[in-house]
Design brief:
The chain is mainly beta. The protein is 7% helix and 47% strand.
């Protein structure tokens, strides 16, 4: 159990970050320098920033390009302006000067990382978004993917389970598959590591240089069969030429959950009952009043925690050899009781140029993570009665019934966990417990929620090693060959312990489970690249071969019946289960791409990849994935060459086909056998599937026109995209005739369509001599449609048969829609068995509408109740810089999504027997359980102040004497504001993927971890 009091070590952390450095101001002999700043055509440039190099003071040119600044004779002035090359001019005793700035096409010539190479931004014809790590490493998060929230148009990142170390759900342009995951492919330093977002947990944000998201099929087709759901490309920081530099980045913060008053106190509920119950206060509430205990389960379960990160990096090198090495330790205590996440990460990047022909390099990234997970759902942790104490003490132990259930609690002692049932059968008149016949106040026979958390232990240990080595041969001017060999190895160990006191049944339910997994992934790639400018013609081409293999091995052991909590290893109890598995997979690929640019105006890109997978039979082993895109840089035409308004104007369009094989197992195309015992004691084998050599790749076709605009010398940038992407040949398990001996078979059927638009708007403004302001706005709209469900139109799905709320898959609607009845009215309190108990209770049933007008309430009155997919996702990110100060903050929101919040059924006791209608109720045929109605369909919209960061960069002689080149201190907050929709009852409207990963039941919420708030202090130092 985590302590709510911060220990001394962490207090030292906080104190250290509060230390400040002294300042030293030396007398300077300054004089005024004035002048005019012009462009190459001698037109004056207003808004140019002029600073004395190495100093904070500065000036800005007026409407006529004139400036005036205080400086010393030997100072150097730095002139900078958006869209122009920064220029340094030595004063050399002058009191006036005229300066000419050259246009800088940096925005157009920005290089972005694409598959198997880089490309100028001005030459891009596909849809690629780039995120540079300016301050992302200062956000107090345990995972790098959490930092991408609100950074990229077309990418929806949801904090579905924001417990410490857990991965968010990432979707690029919607859900493309019906039966399986739609995670994007992750590529780290050119090596595709797969779609498992858990890999991102092993990376340190301090090591990340940039992240590119390849969104359309044209950009992703170079990855062929794994590009259907987009590509997240991560580039890590490299070494640089120069002396060795050491940098330290660290922060410490505190995480908490703001209370939303979702739970009711006994006092408030008693007051409510006294005001509304005509029969007066019931015996149950009188008993609760006499017991006089209160537990705020929010405060107990959301106990908050510290998060701190320490990262140390060394980089440097010569003209021929450059290196960077780093180590990071991060500890995130989360906000839930017992959850915790620790990460140790090391990284080495080394690049060497042997001579003009030969270059080689290596990347090595070992990491270790340890995660203790919250062992139950939050809904289960909060459903405890608010009158239930955590432990028995001298005051409440007198109410314990030592005679109930054959003396089950006869030996109860002070300090034992409290359970609801031990307080039942209490005689209010005599003030003593009875063997039977007294007042019952329990609503569950479960163990104490506290015991269910503290007496369980779920841990996950992962050791990962990622590596890559390459050899590059420069064969001729613009022509080089590159051979790379890399991959990753992952060892995972999951342990589960359910203690003697963790359940209502004690020792007989105690359990231990050990699961281990080993995954080896190897990849080798051979590519030939050609990049050449030939007059007005620019050609960039790549062709190559790739081979990948995977080996997976897992084993599980289970034991039960532990007599105590002292020894938790499997041999200490009865072995009740165990299994092992192993599988292999291989992928062979041929790839090619050519980009052609004529006169910087006309752009064309062609790419193709052929993938052959061992997952498929000989009939469809290979898939072909082509793409084409084109663009026109209109701003390069003569009629716009001298435009003072339009700096860049490019139209582009792309079409491509990508694929996916995530929905098929390693051997599904062949008939599989499973061992089985027989009555005669001889082991045999049963077939478990039907062989299907016709299985083939899921295919995604996408058309994406777009436009990129830069106005007023880059002060305003706009990028707009529209896309239509259709997923065909989806891998589905569909019903088949029972005469085959099977109920379903895996086939290629079904079509899903996603349509949408994206907008990225950037403004850059200089508001004064030293104040710069940048704003970026991101808008995303996506519409998901199930076009063809292969004869299963109208399929109804459930997640939990015990709480059988329904979803429906209708052609012409999203993949999953909430289905059920529409509430018309509440049942009058006089017809509820006990309308005012349990505390916080709500009736199980409600009146519903007769939608078809036949006078009956039956399944024909069900209808579509809503959709879990948002209509609009947006973010607004602002950054300010003023002298040594900087500030950044982001607002982010989502609108239109809904959630089926099953949590409220537990917390509001909707299924408690007391909340059922009585025998006298006359309208039993006009009501249905609330869980099947729109009452549990709640608006999941939200608006959040996701991140805020304020820092100051010190410039002090004291720092120079200490060998510190740069020192920046900052304060930061995350989710400082988080406004949920009215009517939402819960702690996390983003937690809408609790449907066991099934897209057909997406939007199911059952106790996700809460959205938390973080305050942190940090420092960036460079030596």
């Amino acid at each position: 159990m985590k302590l709510s009091v911060i220990n001394k070590t962490k207090l030292w952390w906080l104190a250290a970050f509060l230390l400040t450095f002294g300042f030293h101001a030396s007398a300077q002999q300054a004089f005024s320098i004035s002048g005019v700043v012009m462009d190459a055509q001698e037109a004056p440039l207003p808004g140019v920033t002029i600073k004395v190099k190495g100093e904070a003071n500065g000036a800005v040119t007026d409407a006529n390009g004139k400036f005036k600044i205080e400086a010393e004779t030997e100072d150097i002035l730095v002139f900078s302006f958006v869209g122009f090359t920064t220029k340094e001019v030595a004063i050399n005793g002058r009191s006036s000067m005229d300066v000419v700035l050259e246009e800088n096409l940096q925005q157009l010539e920005e290089v972005v990382v694409v598959g198997y190479g880089v490309q100028r931004k001005s030459h891009l014809t596909g849809s690629v978004s780039r995120v540079v790590n300016d301050q992302l490493d200062q956000i107090p998060l345990g995972r790098i993917d959490d930092a991408l929230v609100g950074q990229v148009a077309g990418v929806n990142i949801q904090m579905t389970n924001p417990a410490a170390g857990e991965a968010p759900v990432i979707r690029v342009r919607g859900q493309g598959s019906i039966s399986f995951d739609s995670n994007p492919l992750i590529v780290v330093d050119g090596i595709a590591v797969g779609t498992d977002a858990d890999f991102l947990a092993s990376l340190d944000m301090n090591d990340i240089e940039s992240m590119e998201v390849l969104k359309d099929a044209s950009a992703a087709a170079i990855y062929g069969s794994r590009g259907a759901n987009g590509i997240v490309m991560i580039t890590t920081k490299q070494g640089v030429e120069g002396p060795t530099r050491i940098s330290y980045n660290g922060y410490v913060g505190f995480k908490s959950v703001p209370s939303n008053d979702y739970l009711t106190t006994p006092e408030n509920w008693i007051a409510f009952a006294q005001a509304n119950d005509p029969d007066g206060l019931s015996e149950k509430l009188q008993y609760v009043q006499r017991l006089g205990t209160y537990t705020n389960w929010e405060e107990v379960m959301f106990d908050g925690g510290m998060i701190h990160s320490n990262s140390l990096a060394v980089r440097g090198g010569t003209a021929n050899t450059k290196y960077r090495a780093s180590v990071n330790y991060m500890n995130d205590e989360g906000v839930l009781l017992t959850d915790n996440y620790e990460k140790l990460n090391l990284r080495l990047n080394l690049d060497t140029k042997v001579n003009e022909t030969i270059e080689f390099g290596i990347v090595l990234n070992p990491s270790y993570t340890e995660q203790r997970r919250f062992p139950i759902g939050v809904h289960d942790a909060l459903r405890g009665a608010p009158w239930l104490p955590l432990y028995l003490d001298e005051d409440n132990i007198q109410f314990v019934n030592r005679e109930r259930e054959n003396g089950r609690w006869a030996d109860a002692q002070v300090g034992d966990y409290a359970m609801e049932r031990m307080f039942d059968d209490y005689d209010l008149e005599q003030g003593i417990p009875l063997a039977s016949g007294g007042t019952d106040i329990s609503t569950t026979s479960n163990a104490s929620p506290l015991a269910k958390v503290l007496e369980r232990d779920r841990r996950r240990y992962q050791t990962k090693i990622f590596g890559n080595a390459y050899l590059k041969l420069n064969l001729a001017d613009g022509l080089f060959f590159k051979q790379s060999f890399g991959g990753d190895v992952r060892y995972t160990r999951n342990t589960t312990w359910i203690g003697v006191n963790a359940t209502r049944n004690g020792a007989r339910d105690s359990e231990a489970r050990l699961a281990t997994g080993l995954r080896n992934h190897l990849v080798t790639e051979s590519t030939l690249n050609y990049n050449k400018q030939l007059g007005d013609h620019y050609i960039s081409a790549v062709g190559g071969f790739a081979f990948e293999s995977w080996f997976n091995e897992s084993s599980t052991l289970e034991a039960a019946g532990f007599e105590n909590d002292l020894i938790r290893v499997v041999p200490a109890a009865n072995l009740v289960g165990g299994n092992t598995s192993a599988s292999r997979e291989a992928l062979i690929s041929y790839l090619a791409r050519i980009n052609y640019v004529y006169n910087e105006k006309y752009l064309l890109s062609l790419s193709a990849r052929t993938d052959g997978s061992s997952k498929f039979g000989p009939d469809n082993k290979y898939g072909f994935f082509p793409a084409v895109s084109a663009g026109w840089n209109i701003s390069e035409e003569g009629f716009l060459a001298n435009s003072e308004i339009i700096t860049e104007l490019k139209v582009r369009a792309s079409y491509g086909i990508t694929g996916s094989n995530s929905g098929i197992g390693e051997y599904d195309h062949i008939g599989l056998l499973s061992p089985v015992g027989t009555a005669i004691g001889v082991n045999g084998f049963n077939p478990i599937n039907i062989a299907n050599t016709q299985l083939r790749w899921e295919k995604l076709e996408e058309f994406n026109p777009g436009i990129d605009i830069a106005l007023f010398r880059g002060r305003l940038g706009i990028s707009l995209d529209y896309y239509e992407r259709t997923s065909n040949d989806l891998l589905l398990n569909l019903p088949i005739p029972s005469v085959t001996g099977f109920g379903e078979a895996l086939v290629n059927r079904g079509v899903v369509e996603n349509k949408g638009f994206e907008a990225e708007i950037i403004t850059r403004n200089t508001l004064g001599p030293n104040l710069n302001w940048t704003t970026s706005i991101i808008l995303t709209h996506n519409r998901n449609t199930l076009v063809d469900f292969a004869g299963s139109d109208g399929l109804i799905s459930v997640v939990d048969p015990k709480r059988a709320a329904e979803w429906i898959a209708l052609e012409g609607s999203p993949i999953s829609s909430f289905y059920g009845y529409v509430v018309s009215d509440e049942i009058a309190p006089e017809y509820i068995k006990d309308a005012f108990y349990p505390i916080n209770g709500q009736s199980q049933d409600v009146y519903v509408r007769d939608l078809n007008g036949d006078g009956l309430i039956d399944p024909d009155d069900r209808t579509v109740l809503g959709s879990p997919y948002p209509d609009l996702i947006w973010s607004v990110n602002n950054t300010f810089k003023f002298k040594g100060f900087d500030a950044a903050f982001m607002f982010q929101g989502s609108h239109g999504a809904e959630v089926r919040n099953i949590s409220s059924q537990y917390i509001l006791n909707e299924f408690a027997g007391n909340m059922d209608f009585s025998d006298e109720f006359p309208d039993a045929d006009l009501v249905t359980q609330r869980i099947f109605t729109n009452d549990d369909i709640q608006d999941a919209s939200y608006v959040a102040l996701r991140n805020i960061n304020v820092g100051y960069r010190f410039n002090s002689v004291l720092l120079d004497e200490a060998g510190v080149r740069n020192a920046r201190f900052f304060v930061a907050a995350q989710n400082l504001l988080y406004i949920m929709a009215e009517g939402y009852q819960g702690y996390n409207p983003e937690g809408i993927d609790q449907g066991l990963g099934n897209p057909l039941t997406y939007g199911y919420q059952r106790g996700p971890a809460p959205i938390y708030r973080t305050f942190s202090l940090g420092v960036n130092l460079e030596f």
